[in-house]
Amino acid sequence: MLKQFFLISLSLSIFGCNTKKSTKTEEKRTTEASDYQNQVQIKHAQGFTIEYFKDYKIASIISPADTLKYILLEKGTPRPKGYPNAQIVEIPVKSAVAMSSMHIGLFEFLVSENTLTGLGNLQYVYSPSVITQIKAGKIVEVGRDQGLNEEKLIEMHPGVVITVGSPGTKSDHYQILTQAEIPVLVNSEWIEKTPLARAEWVKLIAALLNKEKLVNEKFGKLESEYNRLAALAAGSKEKPTLISGLNTKDAWFLPSGDSYMSKFFQDAGADYHWKDKKAEGSLPLNFEAVYPFALDADYWVNVGFSKSDTKKDILSQDSRYSDFKAFKSGKMYSYNAKVNDMGSNDFFESGTVNPHIVLADLIKIFHPEILPEHRLVYYKQLQ
């Protein structure tokens, strides 16, 4: 229903009161077989759409409350009629500033990390190539939130600033930038509920860079591999049980049943007790609610964050962990195999656009007989 409403609203905004019905059809790009490689089709993500016209694209970041529209306009072409509240992004984008290091993986996937000229924070970066650019002074720090250096951004005048936000995020915080005609694009891939949906946000970046052909080729391969691996795991007779995360002072935050991590567990052929528990965000449970299931769970994953974490370090946080079956057997794993000296974790950079590799890791953990030759990439076993 939301998608239908969006399409109706979009049609009305394009046509206008006095526009002939045929205008949209005339402006739309042709969809001959040769043209599909230069367009992206969104199959998994729910948070954005892209429409193609003769000299521009319309990117929409969708939410029930509001939809943010962006006109991706080919350089040197006039602004199209309609879309009075839409920001203009001149394409192909030549320089970009990312507020989160999570966006680095999106650009690297498209072999376009050289497009980055600024980051919100330079400390938490894993990518060796981006770190090299930072050391060479090609990528600068611009700050975030209350510490945003607007003067520096205006001086840099990047082609786009990509910020983290929910679909309903307002751009008031970046009003000075928009007044300076620096477009601010809200990236909401983190709200998606499946690994492929999260990864598909790379198609939005591809639309900014006019790299649709490349993203179609690369995403198509990872999508096929992900589905192949999930099918292998689905055929396994045994479904080992698991728990995820750690207890904190306030609560034990577990992935909700409709989260991307829960989908990973399911596709890897594991039995996750809370798979049917839907929620916005994580499930905050107390230790006593998790304890009965943790006692008998075959595996304990996503436990520990530092690359140097050990079973002893985990036990020092709560002696009751020693009661867990997975603690006794040593079947404890976390996604901290690729953490550099600065504490930056590549699981949150390249891992986002490599869900097939993350899935292969989890299948190797839960069903080592299915992928005997695979070596863990993002995950490691705690010793």
TrEMBL record:
Pfam families cross-referenced by the UniProt entry: Peripla_BP_2
Gene3D superfamilies xref list: Nitrogenase molybdenum iron protein domain
Domain called Fe/B12 periplasmic-binding: residue spans: 95-370
Highest taxon of the lineage: Bacteria
PANTHER family linked: MOLYBDATE-BINDING PROTEIN MOLA, VITAMIN B12-BINDING PROTEIN
Protein name in the entry: Iron complex transport system substrate-binding protein
